[in-house]
Amino acid sequence: MSDFYGNNDKPAVVAKTDAQKIAFAPLMFQAAKALRDFGILKLLLKSKEGMTVGEIAEEVNISRYGATVLLEAGLSLEMVYMEDGRFKLTKTGFFVERDEMARVNMNFVNDINYKGAFYLQESIKRGEPVGLHNAYGEWNTIYEALAELPDDSRKSWFEFDHFYSDIAFDELLMVIFESKPDKIVDLGGNTGKFAIACAAYSSNVKVTIMDLPGQLKNAKANIKERGFDNRIDTFSINFLNNNKPFPKGFDVFWMSQFLDCFSEDEIVGILQRARDAMSDNTELFILETFWDRQKFEASTYSLHATSLYFTCMANGNSRMYHSDDMKKLIEKSGLYLDKEFTDIGLGHTLLRCRIRK
Ligand SMILES: C[S@@+](CC[C@H](N)C(=O)[O-])C[C@H]1O[C@@H](n2cnc3c(N)ncnc32)[C@H](O)[C@@H]1O
């Protein structure tokens, strides 16, 4: 695997253009979102011969001036192109309109991050999510605030989170159930999706979800609705409290898109407490999207940008990790990496760990 990351191989004229793209990114982002939300992209998707500014403005019920500035920005964004006075959709415009990953990412950036991103530098200086404080109040982390966020923000957060993990869950059940576990604990189990998938997959298994009380309230309602309350229970915890030991007696510890919510030191604290509660036969699974393990530039870009969400909005100290960094933390915690599963879901990697004696 190459240890060179990034790109320093473009002509100066392209680099200069890219610098202006960065300089204007927040304005252009809002223009792209407006082209989508006003229904202009949808309209152009249906129109083979393209449309004039006047036709578009009338159809989506905005002023000619508004349609003009958005469509002209759309030319530079390469979301639309113009031929003989008529606007048509480009491939990028198509993906902004139709691609599910682009949709959830854009909503997540707008509804959760946009206002708080202004405080990125301050967040780095203080090591705190100053964006979260300014956008939503003096919460310690966004996870404590999640249950209280405005509906549109909550919806976008959950759609973003589920988009990445849901796809991976189905293909992983076979791997997890290979050792026929009777008891699984899901750390950061959130709305209970994984626990419910396990209970539906195996009629014997019992699952415990460990999470903050706000998330467990939702999880309990979902579990009851699916009729699994006899086999899925919950354990309220704040993992940042290093003094609280983990319950023992589980065959599997499951951590999906969970450790990225913590700093390196906090991860070691969590893994060590898990280790203390594990036996020789216990398997600990870590499911993550490591940025160095992505096949597509779109995914690496999304992950590097997601790290900034952690900095200014989530907690001020965590990130989407490089797989080597996570492996060092596993070693440091007294565990060893027993098996690695790659190419799962949307660029996920699954690490199966056991205790090192
Ligand atoms: C990114 S979500 C992942 C949810 C789920 N495991 C998945 O794969 O979709 C992280 C979860 O960890 C929980 N979490 C984060 N920090 C926590 C803390 N300090 N104590 C307890 N739970 C925490 C959050 O509440 C959330 O449910």
Q: If you had to describe this structure to a student in words, what would you say it looks like?
A:
The chain has helices at residues 12-23, 25-37, 40-46, 53-60, 64-76, 91-98, 100-117, 120-126, 130-136, 142-145, 151-176, 193-201, 213-225, 264-277, 297-314, 323-332, and strands at 80-83, 86-89, 183-187, 206-211, 232-236, 252-256, 283-288, 335-344, 348-355. It folds into two domains: 12-97, Winged helix-like DNA-binding domain superfamily/Winged helix DNA-binding domain (Arc Repressor Mutant, subunit A, Orthogonal Bundle); 101-355, 3-Layer(aba) Sandwich (Rossmann fold). β4, α13 and β5 form a beta-alpha-beta unit. The chain is α/β, with parallel strands linked by helices. The protein has a seven-stranded mixed beta sheet, sandwiched between helices. A two-stranded antiparallel sheet has the order 1-2. The radius of gyration is 23 Å and the shape is elongated. S-adenosylmethionine binds at residues 141, 143, 161, 165, 188-190, 211-212, 215, 237-240, 256-258, 261.
Give descriptors for this structure.
15% strand; 52% helix; two-stranded antiparallel sheet; Arc Repressor Mutant, subunit A; Rossmann fold; binds S-adenosylmethionine; alpha/beta; 9 strands; 357 residues
Which of globular, elongated, flat, extended, rod-shaped describes the shape? elongated
Distance N to C terminus = 30 Å
Which sequence of SSEs, written as H and E, runs from N to C? Answer: HHHHHEEHHHHHHEHEHEEHEHHEE
Under CATH at level 1, the class of the largest domain stands as Alpha Beta
- Can you count the helices? 16
Structural class: alpha/beta
Radius of gyration: 23 Å
Which percent band covers the strand fraction?
5-15%
- Can you tell me the CATH architecture of the largest domain? 3-Layer(aba) Sandwich
Q: List segments where confidence is low: pLDDT < 50 over at least 5 consecutive residues.
A: none
Q: Provide the number of structural domains.
A: 2
Q: Major beta sheet, specifics?
A: 7 strands, mixed
